[in-house]
Amino acid sequence: MNQNITFLLNNSAVTAVLNPAAVTLDFLRSCKLTGAKEGCKEGDCGACTVICGTMENDKVIYRTVNSCLVPVMNIHGSHIVTIEGLNLNNSQLSPVQSAFLSEGAAQCGFCTPGFIVSLTAFFLSSGNLKNNNILDFIDGNVCRCTGHSSIIRAAVNIKKEIGNAPDEFEKRLLYLINKNIIPEYFLTVKEKLTELYVDPTDNNNSDMPDYYVGGGTDLFVQKPDEMLSSDLSFIFKRNTADNVFEDDGYCCLRSSSTVTDILESALLKNIFPGITDFSELFGSTPIRNNATVGGNINNASPIGDMTAFFLALDSDVILTSDKSERAVSLKDYFVSYKKTVRSRGEIIKFIRFKIPKKNFFINFEKVSKRTYLDIASVNTAIYIEYENERISKINISAGGVFETPKFLSLASEFLTGKKINAEVIKEAVRIADAEISPISDARGSESYKRLLLSRLIYTHFIKLFPELIDIKETV
Amino acid sequence: MKDYDIIQHITGKSLFIDDVNVPDGTLYAKVFYSKCAHGKILSLDLSEACSIKGVIKIFTYKDIPGINQIGGIVRDECLLAENEVHFIGMPVALIIAESKFIASEASKKIVIKYEELPVITDPREAFAKGQLSIPPRIFESGNVNNVWDKCDVIESGTCESGGQEHLYLETQGAVSYPLEGGSIKVISSTQGPSAVQKVVSEVLGISKNKVEVEVTRLGGGFGGKEDQASPWAALCALAAFLLNKPVKLILSRHDDMVMTGKRNPYSSDFKIGLNSEGMILAYEVTFFQNSGASADLSPAILDRSLFHCTNSYYIPNVKAIGYCCRTNLAPNTAFRGFGGPQGKFVIECAVYKAALKINIPPDIIQKKNLIKENDHFHYGQKAVNVMSGKSWDKAEMDFGLQKEIKKIRQFNSVNSLYKKGYAYMPICFGIAFTNTRMNQANALVNVYTDGSVGFSTAAVEMGQGVNAKIREVISRVFSISHDKIKNEPTNTTRSANTSPTAASSGADMNCNAVLTACNNILERLLNSAADDLGLINSEGLIIKDEKVFLNNKDTGLTWGIIVENANSKRISLCDYAHYATPDLFFDRVTNKGNPFRYHVYGTAFIEVTVDCLRGIYRIDSVKAVHDFGHSLNPVIDLGQAEGALMQGLGWMTIEEIIHDKKGRLLTDLLSTYKVPDLHFTPAEVIIKFLNEPNPVGIFNSKAIGEPPLMYGIGAYFAIMNAVREFNPDASPEFSAPFTPEKVLLKLYENTFAKDLHSPALSISDNKSN
Ligand SMILES: Cc1cc2nc3c(=O)[nH]c(=O)nc-3n(C[C@H](O)[C@H](O)[C@H](O)COP(=O)(O)OP(=O)(O)OC[C@H]3O[C@@H](n4cnc5c(N)ncnc54)[C@H](O)[C@@H]3O)c2cc1C
Ligand code: FES
Ligand code: FES
Q1: pTM (2 decimals)?
Q2: Using one digit for the tens of pLDDT, what is the confidence trace for B661-672?
Q3: Ligand 1 centroid, distance to A355 Cα (angstroms)
Q4: Please, are residues A100 and A117 in contact by the beta-carbon 8 Å criterion?
Q5: Does the complex come out with an ipTM higher than 0.95?
Q6: Which of A169, B75, B562, B587 is buried most deeply by CB count within 10 Å?
Q7: Mutation site for A-interface testing, chosen from B640, B652, B677 by largest number of A Cβ within 10 Å
């Protein structure tokens, strides 16, 4: 079972014989690198955050990850940066650390290394720093002591102080080293990563695994112990540039496409400019960096956000095995609670949907107890083609209201060909309500979920067609 | 100012309990707990679990050499279940294995059978069935029954406030190893080292001097580690003692959430009477406190609800009754505010409801009734140095609140999808342990011959900056720089018989003990310096910035020299001092006295926006004027205020503890229990310092830990106001937290949602789906 895992840990190359399903946090802490903490082991607190650097197109791309959920196999060949690897040699403080000191942004200190790591990752992020929101980088870090106010002040201050960093990667590194944001060894990382290059296909993957492992953000929350003794096939490929592509009128997403890839995809942004707002309701930055579309769909949770979104786009799932390849409509993919049509040995290769042409509208709504970094109580997506003041085509999906992600076929059918007005929507809401069977759980009572879905369907229309329907007509 | 602790934190070097170096051969412990909320244990089969390779031993109550009893106030709590279980999460057995993983695998192989008994989760049901942990508590002043007739407006009602998970980011844990001669050392993540020492000594059946408890720092406590760190320390020590091996026990987040208690939920009845001018004449309140399966600290928490049941208001006739109701939930416990928030929420509900009836904004009633200088609290203490009116007026003025309110009205008149609401929230909180005996502390200050200083107190550092404040005191007295001063870990061999670091009083008491010790040393040092200078006494001698001055003239002596000289003359450079908070007394029969050293006041203004389509909301801003006294460290105090505020906002809004009817906690993970995150933080949080001196505080300062939490209560009413802007027919119901679910149901009450939300939940295991 155990395997050689090689990666760059801060400034030194490490090779260890490990169970590939051991999580990175446990490994780091067993090496006495205790700066990364275990606060929850389920991706919800950020105390374990580390930076993961991977070579992509001759550049090292740095992203934060929740080390508590990342199997060591998924960091094979990467650069892992912990708080220990950010401390400067001469016991000088970095500007990020100094900002925390002057704002008193660390109280008990348990969350602090995670915050420092995440904020430093902001400076390593691609693109123009001026346009990136530094606070987004700490959206996966929870602090119970400070109430975040002092942390926000510290973050805003350092961005102001350091904001003018060049975009180009090598220049950026030099600039950051000069400003003491990162230690000097970062300059040598690219070379070292190239040296310890590991063949991505060399992963002992089994053909008939118990589980395919994507980003692991579901598997390692739900069954970390079982992973250690399961037959696994690791399929996660961090390759932003080509994960989302256009092919013959279709938009295709490889199963490894992460939410971050979706956020960064020009193609998707073009089709659906609102996709950024929607994607930010998904998990947190480090979760988005690892959560894949394949995992979201195959996890088959009734409240999968990407699943709901792609359902409304009437997507297909492309399944492959040794022998064959087949396309299954996402609408038909789910059989019952957490059961899908996929058979053992079949892998989701990619999903695709027809790129819509004109007169179309897309919206996504998600309500959870806490607006960000929370699982939906109810989510819903809608796709409408609207011509000559009538709905010519419509797909509405809903999550959290049925044992599987739900395509609201009856409500969609009813609305096809209709004009948009309060009466019509009211009837559609009534039909949708008859299509669902939510259960009461920690995310809300049945009656709440019913009311919520009805309000969110109204919300779609009020948001997309404000001149046709007014909130006062809906109560 | 460079603070030692914070530098450790930001460089990731601070060692928490799970980070401390453990000796080779350390064993790992895992607690096996009851999955049944109330029942008789019919059988417990450990054989399969014991046979797993790497399992060293599984302990049950039968292995306890001392007594199986850890109850603090009431002796009603076993360390390990004997024949009955009383809540889901009650420890039954302790698995010791070579690794955490093996211990966890073994716990899945333990077979236990129960005979299920009826489960109570609701305090009113417990009350009806006579399940009280202590006799009822009644606080009374004036006579409410004589004045109802004279009231122009009387309102009554009920209100609920939910539990709250501490969510200290570091879970509970301990490391223990045997010392020679049958002694034992426990490193614990506890707010109360002496409490741990007591429990360990009783469980092991050895004297306290054989139990050494040490605490370096906590990754958050918030009251959750005041009493409830003890069981884990005791279990860990039990294994280390019996196996003669080092043992480590760290709870997983899930186990911590299931096994440990939370803020006590309350269900309450109120009745309030006012005259036509809006003056409150009478207030009657009954608290049904959900104590969980054993008393733990609930009786003391209940007392504080009774003390604070009138919040910042002077009410001439008060009757407050408290019932400590035993249920089948994990024993609820201290949580920042300690019953104060629960008490205050009820009076605010009463005021809100009365205001609706009179048809005036609640703030008119709030302001009119603020307690004034020389008024008496209903427990007999005279109010002095009252800052309620001052903080209210300053908030009005400095923040231009009337203008803000106009803007809110303007917003609401033009927006239909979003509505804004606001509320004022005044607070008043008494400082001291209400159990007078606990108001004592001691300190050891060592000046070393090189002029560096070390100190030991019982103050446990958990992020509240108590050590930085103590350093500030030492630095002021000796006039030396902070970096010469180091704190030692809190350790029972140096600080004995101490109170937990709690009740916001850790800094006050420990700083005072340190102050006495420093003054004693300083006196000896100055006398010795006078001797060096050939003076008859030390009059006119002071130390300033490490130099010794005589009547403002530099004597050439320095801190370093006088320390070295004193030692060479065999004068002690060390001191141990004790502090007992003066002027405290309380008669627990009449429930009258002077329980508090002083009170902390303040006023907050909270503004929210509700999204009327989706039922979600944002807290836009919190502006407060807070009575810090003369802050010893403004950065720390502001941080405490902001952090406490956010916990209060969370308690009132999204932090929802849900149990099913069988007593199972449904919100047992961070994926289902949501605390405020970065996005939740209001865009605007402004906390102004009132900056009035506190004559009885150390260097005129005031305690800070708990009071600002209670500003959060205002969020409930701000949201209610916004909801009622959209749906004036929404009935004012008081059931905190005001979750998005409750908000949506209220927004559409009497429109769409016919049946109101009932907490009866049926659920399949929904672990993060
Ligand atoms: C803190 C946190 C927040 C979250 N927030 C959200 C949220 O807001 N919205 C949301 O929808 N989800 C959320 N999730 C859930 C999770 O992140 C997503 O479902 C994610 O998309 C799963 O992707 P993954 O690659 O990490 O899945 P994995 O855990 O790797 O896999 C999940 C399942 O899919 C299977 N699988 C993966 N890839 C394939 C493939 N190519 N072919 C066949 N089977 C495959 C696996 O075997 C497994 O059964 C959250 C999770 C965490 C921990
Ligand atoms: S430990 Fe909480 S996110 Fe990893
Ligand atoms: S400082 Fe304690 S959790 Fe952030």
Answers
A1: 0.97
A2: 999 999 999 999
A3: 25
A4: no
A5: yes
A6: B562
A7: B677
